[in-house]
Amino acid sequence: MKKIVILGGGGFIGGHLGKRLKADGHYVRICDIKKHEYFEHSEICDEFIVGDLTDPVVVKLVIEDGIDEVYQLAADMGGALYIFTGEHDADVMHNSATINLNVARECVVKNVGKVFYSSSACMYPEHNQLDPNNPNCEESSAYPANPDSEYGWEKLFSERLFLAYNRNYNLNVRIARFHNIFGPQGTWNGGKEKSPAAMCRKVAEENGGGEIEVWGNGQQTRSFLYIDECIEAVLRLMNSEFKEPVNIGSEEMVSINELAQMAIDISQKELSIKNLEGEEFYKKYGFKCPLGVKGRNSHNKLYRENIGWEVSQPLRTGMEQTYTWISEQVLKSKETAFTI
């Protein structure tokens, strides 16, 4: 049995990771600034510490001697509305970088056996993602660096931070660049939700005969990886000897309009898609439409060749499971509002 710490375990990926590791028989300690909204603590960990990881005192408390593995998932992040408007840039960079500086140092001091750092596909250069049909997100394309957001710049900095600790202090690190992880038990409203959750929510909220709004022209492309696949890929990476940053994502690329239509088809509702962009968008919301890059798709050759695993299910399967869960949350919220 390993003694494992998950930082950011009150979040979507961290909660699912904790559930898997606890089910596998390990002792799991979680630290997050908030409790998990959808999992009971007993489902995902043996010990839950509510604490702010920007505080080095908290990190020293959580990461103690004898820890076998630390999974560093904690970050100040969210969906397009949070990341791409520019309003949260300082907090995103300061909070996430401070956490990673604290964690890297403490893992060395406490001689942690192995550390996982969750980076993001947002660190890839904007100039390689201008063609929605041919984005280049191969790991070797990371430099010369030119992320399209401060969130991406911070992720790139923190990758280099952990790699520097590996070179100078022999910190045993694994780094994954996540590509749009989605699924149940995650944020589905409030502005921090990712595209799959947003589309499922918009469809679930409509009764039929109406329309759902898609920001931009809907031709921007992405790939999305279901949470169970992500957790499997993370654990296989941690059990390997591969130490370079590597993509964890799906190579099934879809446009945002196709993603929205998939949610509509799953719901079996009669709905249309309304694309909102430019001046029309600004008049409605009062800020520029946050879109991110025009195209992004995971490139998995490096992972396949070095870890020997591939995604096992199509996007549609994960979307069906996610839509079912989000539609239940929408119904619960309506019932609560009606009761009040």
UniProtKB/TrEMBL annotation:
Gene3D superfamilies assigned to the protein according to its UniProt record, in alphabetical order: NAD(P)-binding Rossmann-like Domain (3.40.50.720), UDP-galactose 4-epimerase, domain 1 (3.90.25.10)
Keyword NAD attributed: yes
Keywords: NAD
Residue ranges of domain NAD-dependent epimerase/dehydratase in the record: 4-249
Stated name of the protein: NAD-dependent epimerase/dehydratase family protein
